Structure formats: C-alpha cells, structure tokens
Amino acid sequence: MKGREFYQAIKERRAAGTPELTAATILDGPQAGGKFLLRGEKEAWAFGESHAGTGVFMERLGGSPGLLVFGVGHVSMPIIKIGKMLRFSVTVLEDRPKFADQARRAGANRVICEPFSQGLAQAELGPDTYAVIVTRGHRYDEDCLYGILSRERELGTACAYVGMMGSRRRTAMVRERMRELGISEEEIRRLHAPIGLAIGAETPEEIAVSIFAQIIQIKNEKAQTEGYPEELLEAIQESYDSGHDRNGSGRRAVLATIISRQGSAPRGVGTKMLIREDGTALGTIGGGCAESRVMQKALQMLRLPESPRFLVTGVDMTAQEAEEEGMVCGGRIQVMLEVTGD
C-alpha cells in the first residue's frame, strides 16, 4: 500500500495547494524504492521504514498547469487546442452562450458561461495557472485583468503568467486604468501585453503559437521537473485498483523515470512514462531504441515472477544508433523503473 499512499499524497497535497513540494526516492540499499515527500527543507510525509541508502533521487514537483482563457474568438480556438495538446487543463470564461459552445467543441476541459467577474470567482487560480485574456473589447480586458489581480491578492498567491492580447496603444490604456484603480506598478509589470513572443505572427494560429511559446518559456524557467501530471496519477491509481495477479491480465504497470542524462538525450531528468502489462504506454521518455529497451525491461519486470519490483538501469545510445532510428540525438540516460499496482 505504500506506493498507493505516496501517489495519493501527491494528489491530495497538490489539491490543497501545498507549496515547494519535493518527491524523493531511495535508489539503493535495503530500502531501495522507498519514498518520501519534502515540503521546503523539512520532511513532511514518509513512505518506508528508513532512509538507508547512498543514493536518493529528488525532484521538485510542479503542479499540473492550468490554462485560463478569457473570451472566445478566432484566436481562442487554436489556443484551446494547443493547450490541450500540451496537457494543460483548459478552463474558458465566456459570457455569450453561443461562443461558450464553440469552446466546448474545441475541447476545453471546463467552460464557465457567466459574466467574466462571476465566472472568475468559480475558476481555480494559483501558481500553476496561466491566464490568457483575449476578450472582444478593452473594457472586458480591464474587468478580467482587475479581477485576476484582485483574486491574487485575496488568495495570497500569484498566477504563473498573465497575458493580454491587444495593440500597444490598447494595452497601454488598460495599464493606465489599472493604475487608476490602485494596482501597484509591480503588479502591472507582471502583465505580458501585447501578449506572446514577437515572431511576426499574423493568423490566429500563428498568434496562438506565439502565446504558447511565451508560456512555455516562462513555465520552463522554474527549477522543477515534469512531475506527475493528473493523467499520469490517474493511470497509476488505476493500476492499483484493477488487478494484482502477477500472471493475470490486470493493469499492473511500471513507472519509468529519467533520473540522469548525459550528452544530447532528447528528454530531461524527471520525464516519466507508464508501461502497462499489455504493452501500451502513457507518455514517452524520448522514443527510438532507448525507449524500446526500457519498455522491454519494464515488461520483464511485470511478466517474470523472479524480476525485481524496483530497478535502476542505464541506456547508452550512440550517435550511430540515433541516426539509424531517425533521431537527431543520442546520449546516455539512467532510468528508474518501479512496479505500480502491487
């Protein structure tokens, strides 16, 4: 049950808004595979009898990123679709039912069809929220921006990103209005407006790409790993809930995590992939022959009774192997493999 408890604790602490959460796994010694969570500099929750061992993999966990889109129009459609593709949880606020329906058809996780001020009161907001204001007029922009800044003060937390679409003249007018409403210069400087990176975007799709280029740039400046996305946590929970027979057809799985990287390996430390008994997988650690080797080891752990439940393995992919696989990079990675569902 300790594995289940660990993943459940991550989910619960994330829902509670626990800051500075770090996950650690013991890599060797009698307690290899044991886990604990840290909050700041102090241990908060332990999952194992002791922390004996010379190696520990630690990763600062980011929360699941949430995209909060204000307004539905031509630019909003590709923003929603790209957000879903990048595994953001997408919430759209729109006060017109017809346009709210368009957001639903575009695949938004949640659509709140209310006046913007009322809708914002129902939306989740925190350090992993990326807010994009793309309404139909500057008076709505003002309402949305002021509402975001006011809720940040109320909650005592700030969004990771607040961006607003508009010309320099229009965004300058909104900034001046925020000053009149008593918003500090420090808060106003956090606003990304005009929104997006300056890549000469013209079409709605190009503008959406420029916006996400800026969001990704800011998101990846944080010193944290990919962590445990909601979809991954749900799949791990499923492995515990459906079947424990080592020789059966349940949903036991192996979680593969990159714990070190050398050279030009394609994915970073903390990248995760879940390999199920039936050979399907959720996520990727880079593809090609390196990923294939990891999957083979994972399936052996699931299918052979004498296999360990926890293993650290190295994969060395030369430049020639990478070229033969049609990839542009090789390098070495160390991968931590742990069975879930037992």
TrEMBL record:
InterPro entries: MoCofactor_Util/Proc, XdhC_CoxI, XdhC_Rossmann_dom. Residues 67-215 form the XdhC Rossmann domain. Residues 249-303 form the XdhC- CoxI domain. It comes from the Bacteria. Pfam families: XdhC_C (PF13478), XdhC_CoxI (PF02625). This is XdhC family protein.
